[in-house]
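Raw record, unedited: GNAT family N-acetyltransferase
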Amino acid sequence: MKGMRFPDDVPVLTDGVVTLRAHRESDISPMVEMARDPEFIRWTTIPDPYDASNARHFVDEIVGPGWERHHHRGWAIEYLGDDGVARFGGNIDVRGVGVADVGFGLHPAARGRGVMARAIRLALRWAFERGGIEVVHWRAHVGNVASLRTAWATGFTLHGTAPDFLWERGRALDAWTGSIRPDADGTPRTPWWRSPVIEGEKVRLRPFKDTDVPRMVEACSDATTRLWIPLLPDPYTEADARTYLAAASWQAATGSMAAWCIADPDTDELAGNIAVLRMNARTETGEIGYWMHPSARGRGMVSEATRLAVRHALTPIEQGGVGRRRLELFAATENGPSNAVARNAGFDFVGTRHRAERLSDGTYADVNEYQLLG
């Protein structure tokens, strides 16, 4: 396919709500607003500070020549606001020939409306039908949950984490990766297990917040926690806590885990963590795992949190749960509190696996296996 003149030959794509079109002079000001947004700066390599000359350079020296040379197809995203007026919403690019990658960014005012998912579907349809593209790749910084959510929603196959895959702002960064082919229907390929707020008497289960990180570090630096969870990094840092939160988002998006912060219902302060782990779509099974902050132990909080998580796990998907038919729970035989939690939550004892887990002190523990059938 030969190149196109910019802006005259740039195809206009629309679904009636979102339109992809060539950039205009009137886009420069909102592009600058978008590029100065802290979240936009955090996840991209745009110049910082950013001004109108940077926006014009992007349009005149990257987008325009990209269309003409047929290697970088970029559109401005336009969407209808609540008042029915069309507004600049962001940028989207399909870069490459045959095998391409997609890049996108959204103006803060356009977020939370499904604008980018619509834009991606429009761009991909054109790329596959008219752009000579066989496969499109997506990549994002590990931790960019908004980008992950968009890739998930538009039907990308989520592959995993590529270590040191991105070089941005003078450092190597890990990247989440995915790809999509023409036969994809533009809808999610896996369930995304949400972590809804669940209220109990002693605990509130809720999604994690960035403000939980210091308490996570305290809990995962505690000697008792570290004894029974030997794979925790040592020392455990705020970066490790954020790595866990990013991994939890990825596993939620790929249908393998739903995790909650166990919070004090009065203060909303983190008391622990509970998750339905290792969910298998074929067998409809899962495993319950948890840890508690030292200050929250001995108050019955983890027992109630487990009962709440189990109830959600066994609730059918169509009723808002995750539709497990069987749950497992494992506890070292010498970990009395954890075994008590299993029994209090209604799990049945299955048996003991001898010398099954290496603890952080170098010894090997026998592990009790429990099960609960839905």
